[in-house]
Give the backbone structure.
Amino acid sequence: LIHSRRDYAFITCTTPVRKFEIAYPEPESVYLRQMNITNLDTGLTHVYEFEDKEIFGWSFPVVANSRIEVRPNLPGLDLSEAAIRYAFSDLLALKEADALRAASIPEPEWFQLVVASWSKWNHYKLTYPDYEMVGTRRGPLAAAAAKSSAKLKPYLTDPTQLATSPSTLQSMTHGMIDEEHWAVVFKFPLPSDALSWNQEPLCARFEARRCADEGCTLGLGDEIPDNWTNPISWSDFFASDLGLEDDIGDVVRVRRLATAWDGLSLSIPADTWVVFDVSEPVALKNLTIFGKLSFDDSADRTLEADSITVWGLLEIGSELEPFGASTGSKARVRLRGSVLDTETYVYIEEETLHNKVIAVPGRLETYGAPLTSTWLRLNGSLDVGATSACVMQDSSGTVDWPAGSEVAIAPTEFDDPAGHVERRILTANA
């Protein structure tokens, strides 16, 4: 018996072929991505395209009594949350009804989904059923009822059966096989306490969790302080860990420190105030600030990292003492890295922010030297390749742009003004 639906055909046969759906995925970076589907029994892999017409996600045929593994087709990218559904509930309800009329037991079937990740997770939450899946098949009233009655399915702490004998487990049994693989089992016939077919009993929503059920303390203690005293310089605070605290001369010491920190992951405790005082660029893997980090403006400062997480305070200048106001110094914070480097991914309240990010659940305050005028009109047209220009003074009567500043020159009129903006670096004070 062939059941046609759009461009697919689903066949009920001796070994059932069912439709599997993964919908409404998170994070947003997996939208429109391909999905690798691997049959763990045969080792065969197929790549499926993201679909945003019939289902916002991926749908594909699977063979009952088998195991598949899914992973986005981009190294380093994880599927951390999604709704999932096994089979058309109407077909299984019909199979159950046929067996009841024949006074027999319906032929059992099972299926296991394994979600593979690059990141390491503590556990997954499984909400049953998924109200959005119910709504797409049964309408808004059914969706509202499913949302109000949805429950969390407890997860197995011992993964042995999930890894070795999934067919023996009840439907919606789930848990971690290891830190990078989560599995859930779908099974028919349903257990006696299962939802009715109108409530879509073979759909659910999973969510990867980095923290245990009791939460992550993250070394914060009871609370993050909002004031700090007794600042300590960066070069002193982090030097002892590298064995470079001996007196070897300031210039040599600074250069050795800057290169010694390259690629490290550093953390500032909650009760500590560190002042970034290194004149050479420092390039870290990642930096976590539980306490306070401020910048000394007696010289230019450059801090690079794949990611920075601020639970406490990152302060560059202050309202009363803007950075560089009296010294002309510049502070630069540069982000770098690759989506393939999962070790530097940032997770805040179970959200995956990836890397090349400054995540601020705490506070970030920056105050630069104020400029009297930030927007001025040219006194006339500029020729191509011009190296100087005259501007019309505004009401302040002064122009105080320092050498090294970047200046953007926009056209007065153009069909695409943003595409015709010229940028120049000032070589002298304006």
